[in-house]
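S., here's the first fold you wanted:
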Amino acid sequence: MKNSVFDIKRPHFPVLVTLVSIIVVGLIGIPFGDSRFIVYAIFLELVYVSLAILVAKGYRKPLYVCILIAIIIIVGNSFVSAHINRIMTLSRPLNTMVLIVGGYLLQGLLVYTSAMALRISNKSKSGTQ
């Protein structure tokens, strides 16, 4: 099973696991979100699925896209007053948990795992360890 998508020793594997986690949390959260934004939510899910496929194939450039999108999501969530209010009041607990887990924790983890995969990939590419 050499060079398998599910090879834990590959530097891209933690990124793939994080992306799949974001997809699952997103699928859970879509029905609880605002129906006005369902098209954007589905589009974002498709972006994450596409990134997961590209990362699973071992491409490096999608890792940069993962970092960029995750930062945009974190910053965007931080400036939406409805999100801030929901987090501060816990008015809709399930929606709030999905927001915190999917919009902050997993996005932060995506930045970290993508950066680490790039770092490991660059080290192995240059031949230094």
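And the second, which I think is the more interesting of the pair:
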Amino acid sequence: MLGNPTLPRLAAVVFCLLLNACADNTPPTEAIWLADDTDYIKDLAITADGTQLAITESGPELRNSDGLRLADPDLDSLTPQLVVGNDNEFLAFGVDDQTVWLARLTNTGSLSYLQQIYTASDMQSSLMLTQFDNETVVHWVDAGSPAWYSIPLASSFHYPLANAEHRYSFGPGYRFYYVDNSSQQMVTVDMSTLAETGRSPVDSDFLGTGKLAVNERYAVATVATELHEGTDLTLQNRTDGSVLKVASDGGFGKHFQGLLGQDQAGTIYYYYYAEFAYQEFGKGMHIRAISTTEPLAWEQQVRGGPPLAERVYYKSLSSGIQLMYVDQTNPYSWEYVESHNRTRFVQLNGAGSVQDQFHMTAHILGKATAPSAWPIERLLQEGYLGEAFATNTAGQVMIYGRTGPGLYSVPGNTPFAARMR
């Protein structure tokens, strides 16, 4: 006898409520348009009129504000790695034989400018992007040290004094920061003059590798540890040297966190998720802000279950952030163990107030638990999994991603593009 199947269902409901793993009660936002003729997305940019340039695995694609595919951009055989929307033009960056190039494209895809901006001696990384509201820095590693191109300053530079294996970052106001391990100091460099403008001692947690974010008052470092699940953060007051450590935790009531970045005003953001409410940690997904005067300026709880660390995407504003993230819950039923992957968007202003938030229909994968069906997997719902987003000046949110059976590039997945507002 199999017994009463109602009991496992009831247990699953109770378990789901305890863990806050049930689906969001609010209805999902439906896409205004979908297009299945794009490829898997790597990067996305949008101009003021809503024209989008997507960098896909098969090359660049241009679409108008209604999602209709336009003629391919005029880049010949060049393949960009990164693209940035700048008013009514696109700035595309790529690497060809150790040479970093910049191409300017109109919002119709016409090439208006092409320039070699840097020649590397030993390119050791792909291009990376740090972007504030009106400042954008494209950077990479050459011969073990960071190099960059600043769009507002229209200049590139190789900084051999900062070892790329160690910590460095860019901040608003054209500042470059790096940790000098030999002197255990944080160094500030003015990117417009390349002059060193200050040094200050840092805690030993800042030595070695990891993420770094710095504003006028605080420096924040991520600290990897094998003691528990998650990443620790170390905050240091740059004025008096005092240190505050914020640790992830394991076991009952565990929480984990991740550093996001900062906005044009200098506020640094990070998220944490707590499975249970205990001590100072409220149950659920939270965003915390480190201002230029306070280590915890505010905290805002947002919707969602545990976020997938590799699927948290951030864009800064003049004051505030936009965040697209994918969370995952795993409710249990009699027939299937399910994995619900829900794409969410939230915009917070500099004071922590929610300006906009929505989620898409969950991408659900079910695995049969009945012995006769094991180990068959089948998609239970054709939901959406976001991979890139951009917003225009009118506040429309464009999301690219995929739908179909599986989280990643497996047969049967169909890429999509959607205008959500």
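Why I say that: DSSP finds one helix and 32 strands in the chain. Residues 1-23, 406-411 have pLDDT under 50 and may be disordered.

Talk tomorrow,
H.
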